[in-house]
Amino acid sequence: MPMLTYVSLGLYFVVMLAIGLFAYRRSTSDVSGYILGGRQVSPQVTALSAGASDMSGWMLMGLPGAMFLVGFETIYIAVGLLIGALVNYLIVAPKLRVYTEVAHNSLTIPEFFAKRFNAPNSNIRIVAAVIIVVFFTLYTSAGLVAGGKLFESAFNLNYELGLIVTLGVVVSYTLLGGFLAVSLTDFVQGCIMFVALILVPVVAFQEFSSADKMMDFAYQSIPHFSEGMQNVTMLGLISSLSWGLGYFGQPHIIVRFMAIRSVSDVKIARRIGMSWMTVTIVGALATGLVGIAYANKFEMTLTDPETIFIVFSELLFHPLISGFLLAAILAAIMSTISSQLLVSSSSLTEDIYRVMSNKEASEKDMVKLGRFGVAGVGIVASLLALDRSNSILSLVSNAWAGFGAAFGPLVLFSLYKANLTHKAAMAGIISGAVTVLFWIYAPVLADGNSLTSIMYEMIPGFVVSSVVIWVVSYLDSAPCEQTTELFHEAGRVMAEQK
């Protein structure tokens, strides 16, 4: 690997750590600052932070790899994600920003669920926190797998060493600067990803004399566009599009809406965020498509399709630019890992320790505990990531479905159903999570496979959770007067701020 490539990567690491130190001095003196940046994050940073933390290593590795292997069917996943993200901005972001502040300044999603029912130390807070820690540990391991593959493929380094380097840098700035560090680094990383996902497919396309020639080479491995899109079964189509349902329940994404400066800023964030997301998803799909054609034209054997972006970075660019492009992959990986570590740490400290210990810890002590939580979750996730055979997209899809089914319906019901009850909320979380786990792991089919081979687990999990919430709320006694008053107060504040 040329020295200039290492210089580019070294500069990237220095910038990330510098942001962490800056944030350490600006916003980590109290819990609100460490967890939510004091609810003073700009719409620009909110938009790119939400996008970068959403589109992790799977954006530059998993999605191009899926296009490389499967072909145009992958487009349906992209469409589902775009629709889901847009609806999330429209119906969740504004209300969640207001409601979490009205609900006694809730700093985490589990805390909001509990205070929504005027029960700040209820069991739902602990159950939701446990689900966050479990699924985010799995989700974080997916990012670390991507980091290990990057260092192994690009630098010929040991896979385990790649895990350590990735974890070490991201834990350092997250542990130091909390939410502000995560948001600012996400902003920078989002800009890097945006440029990279335009640059790589455009430059790779220059290896072909025309688009028709490129497609001729691509069609040697994948079905023609019309054939590929028509061959998708109805269940396959629904499963791909259902990725968009997951947005409503992703704590590391919707927590950005809780931290934005005001409701009026959400519209600006939506325009920036959706523009960024559209360009980057198209770029990722294009990278995979051009990659198929390139591999066929030059008779290149690619043992791991998820490394096609890395291969292009090394083959087609000057070493200095190559380092920038590899930094884009690290940016995608680290932006998501840092968000997940911070949310997991917040749940461990605010929703489990604070509730179960019954102790009045100082703000300084809680921030310190939060830093220990970041390190602890990171270490456990790295141990899971030692199994390098894990598919990045597979790990992400499982965790995405887990959060989408456990929290997505409850977030929507919490924001839009006045007579939602505590029992219904608890039943919805548990039923959604259990359904997803059963769908993934129970070998109930005749060939010993699980139901996920037929339909993406997001769909049954989301449906079961929604039905359970509705039925239990209908059968349960009406919520207390304080709960309904809180709901209507949030509506009044929302109307005033618009």
TrEMBL record:
What is the recorded membrane topology of this protein? Multi-pass membrane protein
Transmembrane residue ranges: 6-24, 65-91, 126-147, 159-181, 187-205, 276-295, 315-337, 369-386, 392-412, 424-442, 454-475
**Which keywords are on file for this protein?**
Amino-acid transport, Cell inner membrane, Cell membrane, Ion transport, Membrane, Sodium, Sodium transport, Symport, Transmembrane, Transmembrane helix, Transport
- Superkingdom, natural source: Bacteria
The question of whether Nucleotidyltransferase is a record keyword is answered with: no
Q: Which reaction does it catalyse?
A: L-proline(in) + Na(+)(in) = L-proline(out) + Na(+)(out)
Kindly list the places in or outside the cell where this protein is found, as annotated in its UniProt entry. Cell inner membrane; Cell membrane
Annotated Gene Ontology cellular components are: plasma membrane
One of this protein's GO BP terms?
A: proline transport
Coarsely, its chief localization is: membrane
rRNA processing recorded as keyword: no
User: Which one of the record's GO molecular function terms can you name?
Assistant: sodium ion binding
Q: Write down the PROSITE patterns for this protein, in alphabetical order.
A: NA_SOLUT_SYMP_3
Q: Which residues form a coiled coil?
A: none
Which family does the entry's similarity section mention?
A: Belongs to the sodium:solute symporter (SSF) (TC 2.A.21) family.
**Protein function:** Catalyzes the sodium-dependent uptake of extracellular L-proline.
- Identification of the protein by name: Sodium/proline symporter
State the species of origin.
Shewanella denitrificans (strain OS217 / ATCC BAA-1090 / DSM 15013)
